[in-house]
Request: fold
Amino acid sequence: MRMSRMAAVAATAALAVSMAACGDSGGDGTGSENPDVATPSFEAGTTMAELSEAGTMTVGTKFDQPGFGKLGLDGEPAGFDVEIAKLIAAELGIAADDIEYVEAPSAVREELLEQDRVDIVVATYTINPTRKERIDFAGPYYVAGQHIMVRADDDSITGPESFEAGDKKICSVQGSTPAENIQEYLADVGEQLVLFDVYEKCVDALRGGQVDAVTTDNVILLGFIADNEGDFKLAGEQFTEEPYGIGVKKGDDAFRDFINDTLEKIYDDGSYAAAWESTAGAFDDNTPTGPAVDRY
Ligand code: GLU
Reply:
């Protein structure tokens, strides 16, 4: 999967260059803004100074999640997480076109930061204590919640309790919080829980009838529902809270503070709301106002 995507990126690189001047793509959930770039100066030796000086940064994000981070035909990801990354880059004096994106499937997000393969991870990334043992989080910048998606014609599943009888299979992603949270509702985890590396494989398995449901955050599922009109629907209610953070390398408190400051700034100046409206806002018109950041 990863190799074929890389090949696709290479094959469309020329197209991406020719499309770069086209700007916004409108209200179809793939909106792409190019924020005004600041000309800041930072204390020498900080991550901010290094990135600003380099004029580029590497962002880990999702490549398969409509509305948050999904690879487009131009070979670049688009979505709310991508827009948040661009707004952070702009505060560092880095233009949107100078960001490099790396696919960050759920299970490898900590590893990407630990191995210095990315500077930040913005990837529907729930802040939790286990992850905080390995990395740090700025934010939260959005609060999602776990939900269940089923085929549109299936009324037999009404929430996580529908899996307690043990006769239905549910799909999620390795290394994700939903894959953990659902287990308490399953009679036989080994038999009922199907795990892939990325959510679009779960969506294919649901369509093909190999599983009865997909579970992850509501906004991710809404993106798949919008992208596959008429095929799927949500079942029951949200049953967890998933506060999304921006992952940074463990111990880089100055960088974390800077990102938290940037979040507060974009909440206030309207660019956060605009980022939502041009992306996930296409299928979720509850434009968030920006949750209070946690400066732990
Ligand atoms: N927010 C959850 C997580 O961080 C689910 C979404 C995802 O896998 O990216 O695990």
The pocket of glutamic acid is lined by residues 106, 123-126, 173, 176-178, 216-217, 220, 242 (CB under 6 Å). Residues 1-27 have pLDDT under 50 and may be disordered. The chain has twelve helices and 13 strands.
